[in-house]
Amino acid sequence: MTTTFDKRMSIDDIIASLSDGMTIGIGGWATRRKPMALVRALARSKLKDLTVVSYGGPDVGVLAAAGKIAKLAFAFVSLDHIPIEPHFKKARQAGLKVWEMDEGMLHWGLRAAAMHLPFLPTRCGMGTSVAEHPDLRTIRSPFEDGEELIAMPALRLDAALLHVHRSDERGNALILSPDPFFDELMARAADRVFLSAERIVPTAELGLPGNARFHPFERAVVTGVAEAPFGAHPTSAAPDYEIDMKHLRHYVASAESDDAWNAYRAAHVDVDQAAYVASVGGADAILAAPRPVY
Amino acid sequence: MARHTLTELIIARAAKAWADDPEWLATGITPVPRLAAGLAKTLYNPRLMITDGENWFARDPVPLGPRGGFEPVIEGWAPYLRTFDNLWNGRRHAMVAPVQIDRYGQTNISVIGDHAQPKAALLGARGFPGNSIHHPNSFFFPAHNKRAFVEGEVDYVCMAGYNPARWPGGRKPFRLELRLILTNLCVMDFGGPDHAIRLVSLHPGVSFEEVQDNTGFPIHRDGGETPETPAPTDEELAVIARLDPHDVRATIIKGNPPGRPEWG
C-alpha cells in the first residue's frame, strides 16, 4: 500500500483548526524567526482566551494588541534593538495576566513536557520573585546533598507554531539559522505542531544528509505545514532574510494610539500573507534589509 | 594622565572585574559592560571567551555598532541552548545593567511598581534568576540615585542576592556570588558584614556623603581613607577607542562628564 503523508495546509486552515482557550507555544526568540504569518492569522481570527508561551517578541505584542492573550507564560518580551515591546508594555501595564519565569525555567518546562515528565528540578528562580508563582513547587534532592530545588512543571502545549526555512510536504523540516532556539522542545512539548515554511520543496531538495545538523525534529511530531514566503517578517529568518528595522519602527509607532494600531492592523494584519508582503514593500525590499549588528 | 571621560574611567575599572577569572565566558550586557569585557580580554585576560553579541564565539572582541569591513574570526558556536548549558555549568561571569538594586544585591529588570499591574513594564526577568545562582555577576548603573539604589527590596527580585529570608531553608543558593557594582559615582563590592554593599573607591571629585545621599540604604565603609578610582591608562584608552569607534560610550552618562571635575 502506498501512503502519502501530505501535511500541506493553508495558514488560515491551520488557525481554523485551533480552539478557544488553548495553550499555544510560539517558536523563535524576540526578533528572530517568529512565525509571524501564523501569528497575524491568529490575531485576525475569532479565537480567544489563549495562553501563550513564548520567548517573546512582536508575536506577543501583536496578539496582546489584538486581545487574544488571556495569560502569557514568558521570561521576556523584547524587540532586541528596541528593548521594550510597546504593545506588550501597554497590555502588561493594563494588567495582562502573566506567568513570569527565568529563560532557563521556560526551557526546562518545555523539556519536561517534551519528555512527558511531570516536572524537572532546577535551581533557576531560587531566591527570586519568580519562585513565588503559585503553580511552582519545590522538591528536596533525595540524595545526600538534600538540596531544595524548584520543581518546574511541564509546560504542555496544545499547539506549537514554528517557522522553518524548508520543509517537504511530509513535515521534514530544516531550520537553517545560526540559532535554532528552543523550537525543537516546543515541537516535542506540543500535542500538535504547525509549521510555516519559507519554501516547501521535494524531499531530495532538503539537501540531506549534508544538512543533517539543521533538521530539528522528526516529521512524526508535525501535524501541518504551510508554505509562507517571508512568513517570519518583520523578524528575521537568516540566512534567507534579516530583521526589517524600518518596519519594526513603524510597528512600534502603532502603539502610540488606538487609531495608529487600527491603521497598522488594517494594512498589515487583516490581510493575507501575499498582501502583507506587498504592504511592507514586496520581496525585494524584505531581501534588502541589512544584516543587523549586535 | 591623558584626558578621559568619566565613562572611560568606569570602563577601565570595570574591566578589572574579569582580570583574574579562569577560562570563562565574559558577558557584558549594554555598552559599558561590553566594552569592559572586551578591554579585559584584550589587556588582562586573553583566556576569556567572548561572543559577537549573537550566536558565535569571537576570537577577539567585536567593536560596538556598524563594523565597516571588519569580520570577526569565529572560534565557536554559541546558540542559546549552549549559553544555558555553559552558564549552568558555572563558567561565566556577567556584568549587567539592572534598573534597581537593593541592600542585598537583589536586582530588577522586570517591572516598576506592582507586578500584577505595573507602573512600568520593562523586559521581564530574562535569564537573571538563573544567572544569579550559577555564576558570578557584576553590575553597572549609569545614574546612581535612590530610584536605582532602593530602600527596602527591589520591586521584583529578578536576581537572587544576600537576603537569607529568600533562600530556601536559609541555605545560600549554589553559586551565588555578587562581585562589583560600578556607578557614575563610585565602585562598590559586597565585602561588608554579611555581604553588605561596601564602598571600594570614589570617582574623582565624589564624596562618600554624595554616594550615601543617593542610596536608599546604608553603604558600608571600611576604616581609613577611601581610595580614588584609578584613571585609565593610555593603553586602556586606546583599546576602548578601538572597540567603540562610533563613541557610543559618550551617550551613556548624562552630559558625558570628564573623568576629573576640574576638566569640566
Write the layout of secondary structure elements.
The complex is a heterodimer of chains A (294) and B (264).
Chain A: H1 11-16, E1 23-26, H2 36-43, E2 50-56, H3 58-65, E3 69-77, H4 86-93, E4 98-100, H5 103-114, E5 119-122, E6 137-140, E7 148-153, E8 157-167, E9 173-174, H6 183-189, E10 190-200, E11 224-227, H7 245-253, H8 258-269, H9 273-279, H10 282-287
Parallel strand pairs in A: 1-2, 1-8, 2-3, 3-4, 8-10, 10-11
Antiparallel strand pairs in A: 5-7, 6-7, 8-9
Chain B: H1 6-15, E1 25-28, H2 31-44, E2 56-58, E3 74-77, H3 80-88, E4 92-96, E5 100-101, E6 107-108, E7 111-112, E8 120-121, H4 128-134, E9 137-141, E10 178-183, E11 186-189, E12 198-202, H5 208-213, H6 234-243
Helix pairs in contact in B: 1-2, 2-6
Walk me through what this model shows.
Chain B: Keywords: Transferase. Chain B: GO terms for molecular function: transferase activity. Chain A is an alpha/beta fold and 294 residues long. In chain A, 28% of the residues lie in helices and 22% in strands. Chain A is built from 10 helices and 11 strands. Chain A has helices at 11-16, 36-43, 58-65, 86-93, 103-114, 183-189, 245-253, 258-269, 273-279, 282-287; strands at residues 23-26, 50-56, 69-77, 98-100, 119-122, 137-140, 148-153, 157-167, 173-174, 190-200, 224-227. In chain A, strands 1, 2, 3, 4, 8, 9, 10 and 11 form an 8-stranded mixed sheet that branches. A 3-stranded antiparallel sheet of chain A has the order 5-7-6. In chain A, strand 1, helix 2 (36-43) and strand 2 (50-56) form a beta-alpha-beta unit. In chain A, helix 2 runs parallel beside helix 3 (58-65), helix 3 packs across helix 4 (86-93) and helix 5 (103-114) packs across helix 6. The longest helix of chain A is centred in the middle third of the chain and has 12 residues, at 103-114. The radius of gyration of chain A is 19 Å and the shape is globular. The N and C termini of chain A lie far apart (53 Å). Chain B is an alpha/beta fold and 264 residues long. Chain B has helices spanning 6-15, 31-44, 80-88, 128-134, 208-213, 234-243; strands at residues 25-28, 56-58, 74-77, 92-96, 100-101, 107-108, 111-112, 120-121, 137-141, 178-183, 186-189, 198-202. In chain B, the strands form 4 sheets. Chain B has a 6-stranded mixed sheet, with helices on both faces. In chain B, strand 10 (178-183) and strand 11 form a beta hairpin. The two termini of chain B are 16 Å apart. The relative contact order of chain B is 0.19. The mean pLDDT of chain B is 97. At the A-B interface, strand 3, helix 4 and helix 5 of A face helix 3, strand 8 and helix 4 of B.
